[in-house]
Amino acid sequence: MIELKAGAQRVRVDQGELVGYEVEGHEYIHQKGSPGWRQSDTEMFPIIGPTDEAGFKVATPRGEAVQDQHGLLRELPYTLEEQEEQLLVFTKTYDAGDWVRNSKFPLKSTAEWLRWPYEFRFTKRFRLLREGLEIKFIVEGEEGMPFMLGYHPAFKLYTDNPTVLAGDKEIPLKAILDAGSRALEVPDCQAVTLQDIEHITIRTQDFGHFMCWTEVDNMVCLEPITFYPYAVSQENLTDGMMKLGDKAREFSVRLLPRILQSSPDAPR
């Protein structure tokens, strides 16, 4: 477990996973062991969404890839590359065609092994700012590699009726619960605000959309995504992929607690 601290902010990261973000003693992140989800954050890459109805196969220009729900990145371990007082940098690397064992097999999946026909390097960077926590993702790999990217953080809930604001739209928790496993789509959106005891805004760059998911009333996942996977059939997931160019692609998420924005020390 590694901690970052800056003023009233405290971040806890365990092997690349954000397991805690406190500001003035208020914990924003869903805690492992609490009902709802066994993790507190993860990444969805190189695809988002389920693949079981397509036989766990995803079409690419280099032939079929074998992918389970949300891709194979989550099966790879992070390596700590850099650590400073207010900065952590983790990476994952993958060699094209390598088989990776699926941790969901056999209880939750019939696909024992996963593979992707492109090599890539994935970087996750945590940086504490005066106004909040920035999480940046950097995708490097072979030119032309198709991919989707989603970030899947879970936020702890304290009140009975929290709401999510997306532009002029107010989304009650019940609407997210009613969406079920498909998650609730929030299209063409760069920022959402979770209104609870302490409000927090999730502001993104280059993702473009959100989806919201939970099956319990004590946590909610507010997930920046590059594509909503249920907009197409599982056989056509490639339709929602972007392609990597000759340079790395960067995507960023900022967690901005309202309490820091109202502080006289917050940046103008």
From TrEMBL:
GO terms for biological process: carbohydrate metabolic process. Keywords: Calcium. InterPro entries: Aldose_1/G6P_1-epimerase (IPR008183), Gal_mutarotase_sf_dom (IPR011013), GH-type_carb-bd (IPR014718). Its cofactor is Ca(2+). GO terms for molecular function: carbohydrate binding; isomerase activity. It comes from the Bacteria. The keyword Calcium applies. Monomer. This is Galactose mutarotase-like enzyme. It comes from Zeaxanthinibacter enoshimensis.
